[in-house]
Amino acid sequence: MAISEMNDEGRRQLKVIDLEGKETPRVVAKFSKLHVNWFDWVDDNWIVFNTFDENDKSTRQSGAGLAAVARDGKRIRELVKKQWQRDINFTAGQALDPNNYLVAYGPAGSNEIVVEEIHYETTGWEFSHSFLRVQNIATGGVRSMFADRPAPPGKITGWTFDRMGQPRVAY
């Protein structure tokens, strides 16, 4: 089980508790200036999460970013960058730009998530279309969702996925 709890410095941290009692509870993600905001298990070994800085009231707060941590806390990886400079030392990998968002999980045991890359019109912040990528949370590797099949035609603005992380509806 994973829980979010306040640490002695007043920051939300992520802790893993073994419900069978075989392992001692351990903090797997904590930061000096950030709170763990949201988290979810991808599989039995990996948790994805994002963070926020309660003192940053600027518009830069819109970049949620995304990270993954192994259940033992020994591997932590940035998956999607935040919009501001970070003070977290993540494992090197292919962190995606802040216009990418988690939209689905891959098949069980695949260590994969599906992220949607949002594109805007060149004249401003008007939404144009999106593109899907598959990211391996253990390695940081990224590939197009449509690397081995034809991509849907036209400018896609939204997706619906099945339980295996496969796109079933594009609109």
Give a verbal description of the structure:
The chain is mainly beta. Helices cover 0% and strands 43% of the residues. It contains no helices and 13 strands. It has strands at 2-6, 12-16, 26-29, 35-41, 46-52, 66-70, 76-80, 100-105, 112-120, 127-136, 142-144, 159-161, 167-170. The strands form 4 sheets. It has a 4-stranded antiparallel β-sheet with strand order 4-5-6-7, with no helix packed on it. Strands 8-9-10-11 form a 4-stranded antiparallel β-sheet, with no helix packed on it. It has a 3-stranded antiparallel β-sheet with strand order 1-2-3, with no helix packed on it. The chain is globular and about 50 Å long. The model has no long low-confidence stretch (mean pLDDT 87).
